[in-house]
Amino acid sequence: MLKKVDSSQLKVGMYIHDLSCDWMTHPFVRNRFLLTSEDEIRKIINAGIHDVVIDNAKGMDVQDAPTLDEAQAATEREIVEIVAKAPVITRVSLGEEMQRAVQIRHQASTLVRTVMQDARLGKAIELDQVQPVVQNITESILRNPGALVGLLRIKNKDDYTFLHSVSVCTLLVAFCRSRGIDAETTHQAGLGGLLHDTGKALVPDAILNKPGPLTDEEFAIIKRHPQDGYNILRQSPEVGPIPLDITLHHHERRDGSGYPSKQANDEISELAQMAAIVDVYDAITADRCYHKGMPAAAALRKIYEWSKFHFNPKFAQEFMRCVGIYPVGTMVMLESGRLGVVIEPHETNLLAPKVNVFFNTKQNLYIKPETIDLSRGLGFGGGDKIVGHESPSKWNVDPMRFLTLA
Question: Domain HD-GYP: where (predicted)?
């Protein structure tokens, strides 16, 4: 049986099933292993990992610990209460914005690729090329945040590094807007999001794209990228303090377990704390060569759990309201047994979005696509209910094909 336990309860002889942290945090070459020494326990605690999942069928038990299902169910209830009533404002439909979003995605990812190449060659960042891209992203978010955010869920291992930067920029701009931050500060935060991983240009591709876990030495090289990125951006005098701060401090954690400066609590600026949440959310929802991305709802649960120690809980909750429990592009299972892709959040009830249904799981076949507004009753374009998110790979379907149905 899988159980959720506090790291202080760990003992030699327990079997770690999940270290319950993002993949770039823990110092182990495996995610699942038997604890064989006190040194391993110290490494877990020193890495800022505050709770883990153990398997008592493979090792020692903690009698009064909640099962993983119990812990997740409790967290889900809290998240639903936080997120369900967040307001949503869009100016144009998803279909109207999607074509522009496709162009912006391509433009932005091409720019980040160029920035990385220039950084490798020792060239200074040309900010006049970056500014318009951030402006285009911001304007797209204002028109319909779901289009670009949904589109950026699609990444492959060849363009992940570039699209991750575009995603962080997009999500950070949306986060700033949802918090009512002024336009100029939002723009500067967007610049920071787009440029935050510039230091990865100096990380060898063999490490950056390694299909397996990193060694301690490789992990140490990866951890240099915030400082390297900061040093690169400082070569361009027109890059302001906000992008520099986000680049240097997006891996800091409020409990002091982050890097490079081990800043803690409010030593970390507000925007760097926001960027840290966005960066982790996008990383854990993306497929990588060494792990499968998790659905948005599961990622929000992780963000919420980690906010007890790593993130500002207030910011984490505001981010969850910003992206919603079922963001555009999420594949969901309906009570009827049909699969659908979320195309538009409801203005006030994020548990009842509009979805395009396209697959019948009971008959295991595609059906004629249909748009359903889950906030409406039977006979009024609704009459169904989300029972949970689903993995496209489980059903061997591509929900993004049905994202822009009329």
Answer: 139-335
- Number of domains present in the structure of the chain: 3
* Same domain membership, residue 123 and residue 58: no
In a domain, 396, yes or no: yes
Task: Tell me, yes or no, whether 212 lies in a domain.
Answer: yes
336 in any annotated domain? yes
- 211: CATH: 1.10.3210.10
**Polymer length of the chain:** 406
DSSP state of 126: -
Instruction: Summarize the confidence of residues 102-121 as an average pLDDT.
Output: 95
The DSSP letter of residue 213 is P
Residues 6+ away with beta carbon under 8 Å from 241: none
Q: Which residues contact 219 (CB under 8 A, 6 or more apart)?
A: 27
CA distances from 359 to 62, 338, 344, 379 (A): 42, 6, 18, 20
In 3D space, the residue among 237, 221, 239, 108 whose CA is nearest the CA of residue 163 turns out to be 108
Quick one: what percent of the chain has pLDDT higher than 90?
A: 50
Q: How many CA atoms lie within 13 A of 15 on its CB side?
A: 11
The pair of three-digit structure tokens given for residue 76, joined into one six-digit string = 């889900």
> Do 154 and 288 have their domain in common?
yes
Q: Over 60: is that where the pLDDT of 381 sits?
A: no
Residue 338 is part of which domain span? 330-402
Same domain? For 239 and 218 the reply is yes
Coil, strand or helix at 350:
coil
**pLDDT tens-digit profile of 78-105?**
777 777 666 666 778 888 898 899 999 9
DSSP for 361-384? Answer: TTTTEEEEEEEEETTS-TTTT---
**pLDDT (tens digit, 9 = 90+) per residue, 185-196?**
999 999 999 999
- Has residue 289 been placed in a domain? yes
Task: Name 67's Cβ contacts closer than 8 Å, sequence gap at least 6.
Answer: 1, 2, 3, 4
